[in-house]
Protein: TetR/AcrR family transcriptional regulator
Amino acid sequence: MKKTPRAAPRPDDPDRAQKAGPLPRAADRIRSSAQDLFYHQGIRAVGVDAIVAEAGVTKPSLYRSFGSKDDLVVAYLRDYETEFWRRFEAAVEAHPGDPRAQILAYFSGLTERTSRSEYRGCGLTNACIEYPEPDHPARQVSVASKRRVRARLTELASQMGARDPEALGDGLLLLLEGACASSQVLGAEGPVRHLADAAARLIDASLK
Structure:
């Protein structure tokens, strides 16, 4: 007897949902949706209604999870910072004991990321531009993060034996910030394509 082919499950088929596993909890969906919307459209431009619609949850769910939009913004920025350090420390770990190579590896990766069509600059810097008020939590998180990056670059400059570690650290930070900003204006064919080379020249000129 010829077997009748089994119909493919519909998108709303409960058997399919069970096989796919449970959906992420509401807080995770909210966080993920906010991350995408805030980064690509701007924090101030995205309202709570857009976030809950994208996440497929209700406003009460958002406020139960985060308390306010500002709390959600802080969570987004801390997630962004965590991802930055994940990439940065991966470059460090790839070149143990060689701070020059560590910096250049991170900058090479940054050149690749800034060349992507979906890249919208540094989310932390963007937050500082959107929130000039010094007491706003979004700005406070972003400024604290940038200070940490500055200190880390100065530390690596010292490990390299720079004559003036603070000056080299600041120069590298300016290159980093400039790459993020210029890529939004001039794209992948702009100055960002020379980022790693510019960093190498700056480092070599700064060593004792």
